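step=encode ok
step=design start
structure_in=
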């Protein structure tokens, strides 16, 4: 964890979302009137079925989409008014569609995370890059061609790149998608231990409930519930959102909530 703490920013952000709506220009509204905030150093998990609007919401949070109404504020400042570089120094992203054919090595891709800080950078670049590679179990891959990696290895490289950016807010869109079980657990454990603010979309409700401080359940671009994991991830909310029956009990080994799912036999 010492390594992880050395990497991220020292000034975790508070993010406040107020009355946020978004839709493509001339198209239907996709995100409807969302309100929530995340305190400095906390982790928010965004869950919801395919097409619920998770990626669209995250795109509003890192200013790829301009909201149709409402606002996103970092430490009380609307991100709409922030300089791009100021935003890039504070907010890092790990997205699903990672460009793959740069012809760059793994270490070079990770080094790109330093770009927003280059004019302030005094130390040797290899320090944080080596730290991030070690943290993500990628040291042996440093000189490999990024394009030659597996999906899961690429995903870990993109997380390492985001960490060297020293983010005060880290936004990740389904970062566990291509990862095997061991790496899913490791990545969530690592993220939960970072003293930075994190917003992460996840499919796995057990991972969300075990590691996040709060959960936003989305369906059809609307908030079903926002709150502490077990208050948000109730069997009722899961039925309403995912159309499955959920059994939630305590895992006998860890004591953490365990989720089991089945279809309602009367509806299938
Ligand atoms: P999720 O990430 O939860 O699977 P998305 O945010 O990707 O959901 O998409 C939510 C809905 O909005 C989907 O129906 C998707 O097709 C639609 N959508 C997303 N972006 C656009 C866009 N730029 N133009 C039109 N429709 C979009
Ligand atoms: Mg998505």
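sequence_out=
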């Amino acid at each position: 964890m010492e390594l992880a703490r050395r990497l991220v920013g020292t000034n975790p952000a508070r993010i406040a979302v107020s009355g946020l709506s978004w839709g493509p220009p001339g198209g239907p509204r996709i995100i409807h009137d969302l309100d929530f905030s995340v305190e400095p150093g906390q982790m928010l998990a965004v869950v919801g079925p395919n097409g619920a609007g998770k990626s669209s919401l995250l795109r509003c949070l890192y200013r790829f989409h301009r909201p149709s109404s409402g606002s996103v504020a970092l430490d009380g400042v609307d991100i709409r008014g922030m300089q791009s570089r100021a935003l890039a120094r504070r907010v890092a992203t790990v997205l699903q569609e990672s460009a793959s054919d740069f012809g760059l090595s793994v270490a070079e891709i990770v080094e790109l995370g330093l770009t927003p800080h280059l004019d302030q950078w005094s130390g040797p670049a290899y320090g944080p890059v080596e730290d991030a590679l070690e943290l993500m179990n990628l040291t042996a891959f440093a000189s490999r061609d990024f394009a030659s990696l597996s999906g899961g290895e690429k995903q870990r490289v993109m997380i390492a790149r985001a960490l060297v950016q020293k983010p005060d807010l880290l936004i990740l869109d389904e970062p566990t998608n291509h990862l095997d079980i061991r790496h899913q657990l490791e990545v969530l454990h690592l993220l939960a231990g970072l003293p930075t603010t994190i917003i992460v979309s996840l499919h796995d409700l057990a991972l969300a409930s075990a590691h996040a401080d709060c959960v936003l359940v989305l369906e059809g671009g609307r908030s079903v519930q926002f709150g502490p994991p077990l208050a948000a991830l109730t069997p009722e909310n899961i039925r309403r959102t995912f159309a499955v029956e959920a059994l939630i009990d305590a895992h006998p080994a860890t004591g953490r909530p365990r989720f089991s799912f089945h279809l309602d036999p009367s509806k299938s």
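step=design ok
step=annotate ok -> The pocket of adenosine-5'-diphosphate (ligand 1) is lined by residues 24, 27, 30, 48, 50-56 (CB under 6 Å).
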